[in-house]
Amino acid sequence: MAEKTQQAYPSAPANHGYQRSDAESLESADELKRQKKIKMAIYISIFVVFQIIVITTMSLTVMKVKTPRFRLGNINVQSFESVPATPSFDTKFTTQIKIKNSANWGSYKFNAANVTFQYQGETLAVINIEKGKAGWLSTIKRNAEVSLNSSRITGSNLGSELSSGVLTLNSVGRLNGKVAIMFIMKKKKATNMNCTIAFDVAAKTLKSLQCK
Ligand SMILES: *[C@@H]1O[C@H](CO)[C@@H](O)[C@H](O)[C@H]1NC(C)=O
Ligand SMILES: *[C@@H]1O[C@H](CO)[C@@H](O)[C@H](O)[C@H]1NC(C)=O
Ligand SMILES: *[C@@H]1O[C@H](CO)[C@@H](O)[C@H](O)[C@H]1NC(C)=O
């Protein structure tokens, strides 16, 4: 039993053992350096891969410029008069011009523009839009008062449309501007309005408003 114990735990002797451990420590110093280098290389690789992932993710999300939405808000009809026989109509309503910049990581600065209200491509009224800026994740709402009538409409099926009970108009417009991302990058971005406004002729009210 005693012998066995001695073998298992040799009591620290001798030059021999000492020398060997010296050589070993030299060797292991080199080994340590090598391992450090490997570790360093691994860390750098991880860092590079991480950076690539971060940059790719950023360019797919934060840096990606999304189109702000350009639409009409609620329409409140103030007056609506029509005569199917003539045919003619005359209306006045209030609405809101909305520029929604809710998806970009930066503000949207747009140039002056306009919105036209049309009947089958014929412009009946123009609303001017002053230049402005929709901040980060925000929506600009501008009140607008619109008056329009059928005086400019020539040769169309207005009469039958009024008789059918629903008058359909469009509001179209285009904003040109720039999205400033994280204060550094600027990218041009245009956005279009194309809303369809339907009036209920008999009830003299708005029937529906749909914007693309
Ligand atoms: C409305 O804007 C368009 C495009 O910017 C322009 O061509 C047109 O002249 C403008 N119309 C009016 C009446 O200001
Ligand atoms: C009809 O609209 C035109 C502009 O398109 C305007 O000049 C005219 O005064 C309007 N007429 C009436 C009766 O409101
Ligand atoms: C608006 O949308 C209608 C379809 O709903 C389309 O016929 C029309 O050409 C569009 N107008 C513009 C200016 O994009």
Strands, count: 11
Each distinct ligand:
2-acetamido-2-deoxy-beta-D-glucopyranose
Task: Write the H/E string, N to C.
Answer: HHEEEEEEEEHEEE
Strand content: over 45%
Uncertain segments are 1-6
Mean pLDDT: 88
Structural class: alpha+beta
CATH class of the largest domain: Mainly Beta
How many H/I helical runs? 3
Give the terminus-to-terminus CA distance.
92 Å
Overall, the morphology is: rod-shaped
The main pleated sheet reads as:
7 strands, antiparallel
Q: From the structure provided, what is the oligomeric state, counting identical versus distinct chains?
A: single chain
Q: What is the number of independent domains?
A: 2
Q: What is the CATH-assigned architecture of the largest domain? A: Sandwich
What is the third-level CATH name, the topology of the largest domain? Immunoglobulin-like
Provide the gyration radius in Å: 37 Å
Description:
There is one protein chain. 28% of the residues lie in helices and 47% in strands. With 212 residues, it is an alpha+beta fold. The chain has two domains: 18-60; 69-211, Immunoglobulin-like (Sandwich). The chain is rod-shaped, with a radius of gyration of 37 Å. The structure holds 2-acetamido-2-deoxy-beta-D-glucopyranose (NAG) (3 copies).
